[in-house]
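Figure 3 (text version): structure tokens given as input.
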């Protein structure tokens, strides 16, 4: 308390300073806010979750091959958010209410659980899933090859110029043209003509690249009739349909060479340089 005998202006200055000091020393415990470090950690945790939301949406709406490559983000970001939230919990003073910290922990746990759920919803990432995909893709191309030879038997031994003719003439199921790990969907329509129209004019209804137009049944096992982009299987390899109707899986290096040869106009493809 200021001295009663002091001048009035000195008493007022001293009283003001004492009041100011009281505010400074009592603000932190009365406000119940976390320490600065805890606030920053909780804010970082929530910021990471904010980044995780559009990443999850992008992965869920992307093609299956892209999702297979990048879905680890749906787990890594929530883990980072959870670590920030735990750090905030550790550095916060026990006397504080830690509202920010509790929110950060709860949100990061929810994000982590959602990330686990997203990963669990993709069984194709295990070996049995990969085996099924390869078997299905191999079967698709083999059946496409059979349909091509049936068409050729009815058309002077000539292969169809485009694959949509197999739907028109041979009534091939449009689902055969879809790789199960691509983002493509079978062409739909109330009539065969509508299905063919959708197949021809709208993208996303064929996962395979057909190069057999102009060929005939004299094509050999060295010729390529159709192949799939490497992106169908996350750049691990691709299936190829050959001139004798057989289908085979090539690893990434062999598939890249074969595709480059076809695109350069060499069909049958030339062997790799080291094997020539």
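Below: residues designed for each position.
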């Amino acid at each position: 308390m200021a001295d009663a005998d002091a001048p009035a202006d000195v008493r007022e200055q001293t009283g003001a300073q004492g009041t100011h000091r009281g505010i400074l020393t009592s603000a932190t415990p009365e406000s119940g806010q976390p320490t600065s470090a805890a606030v920053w950690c909780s804010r970082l945790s929530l910021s990471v979750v904010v980044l995780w939301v559009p990443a999850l949406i992008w992965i869920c709406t992307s093609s299956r091959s892209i999702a297979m490559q990048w879905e680890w983000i749906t787990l890594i970001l929530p883990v980072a958010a959870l670590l920030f939230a735990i750090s905030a919990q550790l550095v916060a003073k026990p006397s504080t209410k830690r509202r920010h910290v509790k929110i950060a922990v709860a949100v990061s746990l929810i994000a982590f659980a959602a990330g686990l759920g997203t990963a669990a919803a993709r069984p194709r990432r295990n070996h049995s899933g990969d085996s099924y995909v390869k078997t299905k893709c191999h079967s698709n191309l083999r059946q496409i090859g059979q349909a091509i030879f049936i068409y050729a038997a009815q058309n002077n031994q000539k292969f169809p110029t485009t694959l949509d003719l197999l739907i028109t003439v041979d009534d091939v199921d449009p689902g055969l043209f879809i790789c199960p790990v691509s983002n493509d969907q079978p062409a739909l329509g109330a009539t065969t003509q509508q299905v063919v129209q959708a197949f021809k004019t709208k993208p996303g209804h064929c996962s395979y690249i057909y190069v057999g137009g102009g060929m005939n049944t004299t094509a050999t096992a060295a010729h390529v009739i159709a192949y799939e982009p490497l992106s169908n299987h996350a750049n691990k390899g691709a299936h190829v349909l050959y001139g004798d109707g057989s289908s085979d899986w090539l690893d990434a290096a062999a598939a890249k060479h074969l595709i480059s040869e076809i695109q350069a106009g060499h069909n049958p493809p030339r062997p790799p340089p080291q094997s020539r």
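The chain has two domains: 28-122, 127-269.
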